[in-house]
Specification:
single chain, mainly beta, 5-stranded antiparallel beta sheet, 4 helices, 39% strand
Length: 282
C-alpha cells in the first residue's frame, strides 16, 4: 500500500477493487456494485461501527461503488464524486436507479408527502443533495423515490452557482461537525468542498488534498495581496478569504461557520502553534 492514499484507494490487505489488481496485493479482489444514498445523508466512517470516527458524509443521491457488505449492516466502498473510501450503513444505500436530474440549491428543504405545504414532511434534504424529478405539480417536484419538494428550492443538476463565497455564507451559524457535510453540521473542508462543487469546481474532501487544486499566492500577512475567494490554509484547516479583511470558515473555536477578521484568526491560530501554510487562488 506504500505510495497510495488509503483515503482514496479502495484496498485493504484482505480485499481490493479489481481495478487495482497488479498494482496492490490483496487476498481477493471485487468488481464492486454501484449503489446510491437513499437516506438524507450517509455517514462514512473509518471502521464498520457507529463508534468509529466520521470521515465524511455522502449526500442523498450520491453514488457509491460497494465492494463488500457485512452481515452486521455495513458497506465498504468508494464515493463516486470525490473518491473517498470507507464504511457506510447498508440501510442508507440501495441499488442505483434513475440518474439524477436535479439538486437542492436551498440550504435545506423539506420533502412533503403531498404537493401541499400543509402535508406532513417526510424528510429534509441538505444543500447539494441530488434526485430525479418525475413530474411537477402545483409548485412542487415529485422525486422518483417519493415525496414532493418545493420548486423554489431545487435546480437542474447542471446548474452552477456563480460565487463560492456567497454559497459558503449561506451556512453561517451552522454547527461545526468533524467530518460533517450538511446544513445540520460540517467542518472546514466540507464547507469549502460544497461551495466549490456548487460552482462546477470539483474539489477533494480534506484540506491537505485541497491544497493541491490551485496555485499558491505570495502572502506575508498583508491582506491587500489577497482576493475574495482565495483559500487560506493552515495545518488541518482551511477557509475562504471573504474580502474586506475577513475569513469565512467552519471552525472549532466558534463551533460554527463564522466570519471574522482574518488577522484575528491568524493571531489565535498562531497562539495555538500553527502558522498560515499558504494561500491558493482558483
Amino acid at each position: 500500500m506504500s505510495g497510495f492514499d488509503k483515503r482514496l484507494t479502495p484496498a485493504r490487505p484482505d480485499l481490493a477493487a479489481s481495478s487495482l489488481r497488479g498494482k496492490i496485493n490483496a487476498a481477493r479482489y471485487a468488481d464492486g456494485v454501484v449503489m446510491q444514498v437513499i437516506d438524507v445523508s450517509a455517514p462514512l466512517r473509518n471502521a464498520p461501527t457507529s463508534e468509529a470516527s466520521l470521515d465524511t458524509e455522502a449526500l442523498h443521491g450520491e453514488r457509491v461503488t460497494v465492494y463488500e457488505e457485512t452481515d452486521e449492516g455495513w458497506c465498504w466502498g468508494q464515493l463516486a464524486r470525490d473518491g473517498y473510501v470507507g464504511w457506510l450503513p447498508s440501510n442508507a444505500l440501495a441499488k442505483e436507479s434513475l440518474a439524477s436530474t436535479h439538486r437542492v440549491k436551498a440550504l435545506r428543504t423539506f420533502v412533503f408527502s403531498k404537493p401541499d405545504i400543509k402535508s406532513p414532511p417526510i424528510a429534509a434534504l441538505s444543500f447539494g443533495s441530488e434526485f430525479s424529478v418525475m413530474r411537477e405539480e402545483g409548485g412542487f417536484a415529485l422525486a422518483a423515490n417519493g415525496g414532493f419538494i418545493a420548486r423554489q428550492h431545487i435546480a437542474p443538476k447542471d446548474y452552477r452557482e456563480s460565487d463560492p463565497v456567497e454559497v459558503a455564507r449561506r451556512f453561517l451559524g451552522t454547527p461545526y461537525l468533524w467530518g460533517g457535510k450538511t446544513s445540520a453540521g460540517l467542518d472546514c473542508s466540507g464547507l469549502v468542498q460544497l461551495a466549490l462543487q456548487s460552482t462546477g469546481i470539483e474539489c477533494p474532501r480534506d484540506s491537505d488534498m485541497q491544497q493541491k487544486i490551485a496555485g499558491a499566492v505570495s502572502f506575508s500577512g498583508d491582506e491587500k495581496t489577497l482576493k475574495r475567494g482565495d483559500l487560506v490554509f493552515w495545518k488541518g484547516h482551511v477557509g475562504f478569504y471573504a474580502g474586506e479583511g475577513k475569513l469565512l470558515h467552519a471552525n472549532a473555536f466558534h463551533m460554527a461557520v463564522a466570519e471574522e477578521l482574518l488577522r484575528y484568526a491568524i493571531e489565535r491560530i498562531r497562539a495555538g502553534g500553527s502558522e498560515v501554510l499558504e494561500v491558493l487562488r482558483l
